[in-house]
Amino acid sequence: MATKVNKFDKIINIKNKKASFQFEFIDTYKAGMVLKGTEIKSIREGKVSLTESFCVFLDGELYVRQMHIAPYSMAASYNHDAVRDRKLLLGKKELEKLQTKSQEKGLTIIPVRIFINDRGMAKMEIALGRGKKVHDKRQDLKEKDAKRELQRMALK
Asked: Where primarily located (predicted)?
């Protein structure tokens, strides 16, 4: 018998690598995104950049700014803007909690990764974060190098 092929088998997991280096994550949330048809097709191809993106509240709703989704190659004239504000979908209580926390000094909301769940929906993991100091970043680099050295020794 032939096995059933799932069209969502290709795993999409796009990460913001700069975020974990520059920010200390306090709390994380999973949010849905309001997208156009060509945007979701580009996300499934993996053509997304989160490096310069950030989240902001506009009229009580959460939006992600500066997220770059490349135009879909197969679309002719109905393509989307590569960089535009995209609405994030969260529960009312989560939005209120995030809005009050983000107004505290030094806290910001950062997009961490984009993934496609088992139902085929594009989701974004966002984090409430505090910026790291220079000495914290140096400490992280030292720990990362130490782990790498231990792995090299274990392989020999």
From this structure: cytoplasm
Q: Walk along the chain (156 residues) in steps of 10 and give the mean pLDDT of each run.
A: 57 83 89 88 87 90 91 79 88 92 88 89 91 83 90 85
Q: What is the pLDDT of residue 119?
A: 86
Closest to 128 (Cα-Cα) out of 113, 108, 145: 108
Global pTM value: 0.78
3-state secondary structure of 76: coil
The domains of the chain are located at 13-155
In this structure, are residues 89 and 31 in contact, taking their beta carbons and an 8 Å threshold? yes
Contacts of 110 (CB under 8 A, 6+ apart): 16, 19, 23, 25, 54, 55, 126, 127, 129
Tokens of 80: 């989307």
- 77 contacts 38 by C-beta, under 8 angstroms: no
- Rounded CA gap, 115 and 124, in Å? 6
Task: Give me the CATH topology for the region 13-155.
Answer: Small Protein B; Chain: A; (2.40.280)
Which uninterrupted H or E stretch holds 20? Answer: helix 17-22
What are the percentages of helix, strand and coil residues in the chain, rounded to 5?
30, 35, 35
